[in-house]
Specification:
The protein is an alpha+beta fold. The chain starts with a strand and ends with a helix. A hairpin with a 6-residue loop joins strand 3 and strand 4. It is built from two helices and eight strands; from the N terminus they run βββββαβββα. It has one domain. The strands form three sheets. It has a four-stranded antiparallel beta sheet.
């Protein structure tokens, strides 16, 4: 399950505005690579909509089936707001409805089956 936690305004190339819903998955415990300590986090993704602002506002808090998954992308630069540090990333998170798999998930399953 994912939950709509916010919405944001985006602008198309032609200048017209549209809204995206910010969705968040469940809490996950991740071990820090630097300190070795565990911390709680949740994956987030943005989902484009055809809704108006009032509809987006009213949807905050709604839960629906699906998950947030990590996909590989071309490398890109990302600036950390708090520190100003610029880092290079090669992934992003997307929303997937239930029963839909990424190519990476399909590959992992086929490799698992091949070695078992």
């Amino acid at each position: 399950m994912v939950r709509i936690i916010n919405y944001k305004t985006r602008q198309k190339e032609d200048g017209t505005e549209f809204y995206v819903l910010e969705v968040q998955g469940g809490i996950e415990m991740i071990k820090s690579k630097t300190s070795g300590q565990y911390y709680a986090t949740a994956k987030k993704a943005l989902v484009p909509t055809t809704f108006d602002e009032a509809t987006c506002k009213g949807l905050i808090g709604t839960e629906f089936p699906g998950s947030i998954t990590k996909i590989t992308t071309e490398p890109y630069q990302y600036s950390i707001k708090e520190t100003g540090e610029v880092i290079s990333l090669e992934h992003r998170y997307i929303y997937l409805p239930e029963d839909v798999e990424t190519d990476e998930a399909k590959l992992a399953k086929s490799l698992e089956q091949a070695f078992n």
